[in-house]
Amino acid sequence: MQIISRIDELNISDRTAIAMGKFDGIHLGHKKLLSKILEEKQDGLKATVFTFEPSPEEFFVGHRVKQLFTRDEKRRAFEKMGIDILVEFPLNADTAATDPEDFVRTILFDDLKARYIAAGTDVSFGDKGRGDQYLLRNLSKDLGFELDLINKVMLDGSEVSSTRVRNEVTDGNMAEVKRLLGSNYSVSGIVEHGRHIGHTIGVPTVNILPPDGKLLPPYGVYSSEVIIGEKSYHGMTNIGRKPTISEKEQVGVETYIYDFDEDVYGKYIEVKLIEFTRPEMKFESIEALKAQIEKDLQNVRPEI
User: Fold this and answer.
1) Which homologous superfamily does the CATH classification assign to the domain defined by 2-159?
2) 2-159 and 184-300 share one CATH topology?
3) What distance lies between CA 302 and its chain's CA centroid?
4) Whole-structure pTM over 0.85, yes or no?
């Protein structure tokens, strides 16, 4: 997958089918958009995602907004789906002030060779967000590209949106998050060395440290699925600060993988969170912590 993250990289030679959006979380609405451009590959167009970095929400608010997908997770997800080109359009004071018509004519049509564009009916772009579906409609007739305006996906009478997904993640409703995303919510990263407390009490774990910008569900214990390479394993995951053994503020995601004893330090893993089991607790001793972990392992272990 080709990744374009600078203005001077925009001029490409291939004709493209472009999906425009924020794509945080890649929920059911996003997947509907993406399916449209993936279909256009059979006509020789390059499936292209056009998004912004940082997100418009974060840029205009002026401070970091927790994201459902980190930049790396988003890149990996798009590549896995078969996207050919990912445009992470750099959003700053100058680019945000781009005239909406120039944005379509110069950036999308001339530079990115858009011959098909899919966007939500609430699409907004260019200076002060003045670019909308009506401008796209007019310019599609003038320039000759095909335009597909996609209605919002509804679930239980309400719109599927990144905000809705964030609210459910924040509340720990992982089953509902899965409904909205079409897959389990996950936390990914490189396995790092921890304090090895798990090894000393007979419960070795793999540990990843999510970046500050990653939205995490409530601290506590979850049943999980762990993806390592092409293989999938059952796991029990704790998210939090491990108050029994550490006074540090660092939030970690540590997972016990059932029936697994391989060395995966330095490897990339994906931890899919299935169900919230209990909140994070501080125990009076390591022995009390070990006893609770053993109970958790029995409660979370999948039936075979």
Assistant:
1) HUPs (3.40.50.620)
2) no
3) 26
4) yes
Q: Structurally, what CATH architecture does the domain formed by 184-300 represent?
A: Beta Barrel (2.40)
CA angle centred on 66, ends 282 and 167, rounded to 5°: 75
Instruction: Report how far residue 76's alpha carbon sits from residue 168's, in angstroms, rounded to the nearest whole number.
Output: 23
| Helical ranges in the chain per DSSP H | 28-39, 56-61, 71-81, 93-96, 100-102, 133-143, 162-171, 174-181, 197-200, 286-300
Q: Model confidence at 59, in pLDDT bands (50, 70, 90)?
A: confident
Q: Cβ distance 153 to 29 under 8 Å? A: yes
Measured CA to CA, the distance from residue 302 to residue 299 in angstroms comes to 8
Helices (H) and strands (E) in the chain, counts: 10, 14
Tokens encoding 196: 């090895």
Give tens-digit pLDDT for 289-299: 888 888 888 88
The dihedral through the CA atoms of 66, 49, 110, 121 has a sign that is negative
CA-based max dimension of the chain: 72
Neighbouring residues of 189: CB distance < 8 A, sequence distance ≥ 6: 208, 209, 210, 253, 268, 269
Nearest-5° angle of CA 175, CA 64, CA 209? 60
How far apart CA 75 and CA 45 sit, in angstroms, is 20
The CB density around residue 1, as the number of other CB atoms within 10 Å, is 15
CA 242 → CA 52, 212, 213, distances in Å? 35, 17, 20
In 3D space, the residue among 215, 289, 292 whose CA is nearest the CA of residue 253 turns out to be 215
117: β partners: 18, 147
For the chain, helix, strand, coil in percent to 5 are 35, 30, 35
Domain boundaries, the chain: 2-159, 184-300
Q: Is the distance from CB of 245 to CB of 209 less than 8 angstroms? A: no
Examine the pLDDT at 178 and tell me if it is beyond 70: yes
